[in-house]
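Continuing from the previous page...

OK, I double-checked the sequence for 2-dehydropantoate 2-reductase against my notes and this is the correct one:
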Amino acid sequence: MSWHILGAGSLGGLWAARLFRAGIPVRLIFKDRLRLAQYRAAGGLSLREGKQDSLYPLPAETPQETSPIRRLLVACKAYDAEDAVAAVASRLIPGAEVVLLQNGIGSQERVVERIPRARCILASSTEGAFRESDFSIVQAGKGHTWLGDPAHPDHVPEWLDELNEADIPVQWSIEIMGQLWRKLAINCAINPLTVLHKCRNGELNAYAGEIKALTLELGALLEAVGHGNLAPGLQEAVLAVIDATADNTSSMLQDVTHGRRTEISFLLGHALQEAQRHGLKLGALEQLHRHLIDHLETHGLPVD
Ligand code: NAD
Ligand code: KPL
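Thanks. Re-ran it with the corrected sequence; updated structure tokens here:
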């Protein structure tokens, strides 16, 4: 059974390379013929793990190929996921399994609506990877990925063990929405502040007051959206992540530094949208959102 990888960037490439070298059939799907030609000219995907560099000549195609898709990993950014999936939707067989690796919340629902006959599995990942150049991926840190299906929480896919054997650390979660909300709350408390203060995660220890105010509001939001069990200890959880990732540059700061669009709409944007829906006024988060938007505008970056 073949995997197709839609969005062979940092994380998608990391998954694809490990599947390929474990002997699991896998094909990359590039957006268009130009991108496919560039990939072929590069000779494959390069992956650096520690000091080890390897080149993996994975087979690749464009969405226009007609062969059916049974298992799809969507590894685009959250803002690209819906359009990317729409381009291959007609190739998905009924009951196809589609894993959505997007960070934040909001993009998954749009994809689910696009492909009602597929089974969408949501993912929340703490793995780390970045692209040194096109088709050249660096594994930046070890982590693991939670997978789950809110519609069928007890239906564990048969291929889960295969992924672990391929060195892709995954675990099934019957509470994947809780995992996604927890990560969203942590990312909302950390990522925008690192952008506004232009600092590594560890330097946020100097802004304990701001973090406390934000985590109190995020805790109230978690309560409102039905994940109140995650609210107690949120501040401690955020501080623990700050310490554990003290030398990291957050993904949002990396995006801004490289002039790339951020996933703000699926993090702070989604948090505030849900707060409004539940009649919650979250002043500190709103102010943070405004400051972040001003910052993005100043840097000529999209604010959504
Ligand atoms: P990335 O930008 O490195 O890769 C995304 C890839 O998708 C790019 O190669 C892009 O060209 C491709 N793409 C965009 N539109 C496409 C389309 N229509 N068809 C085919 N390909 C298309 O992004 P990433 O860092 O791998 O992140 C992917 C998602 O995973 C994000 O939501 C991110 O937040 C999440 N995530 C990433 C990491 C990480 O360490 N990189 C960790 C945890 C979560
Ligand atoms: O997930 C992260 C991110 O940068 O997006 C944290 C946990 C903040 C680590 O950098």
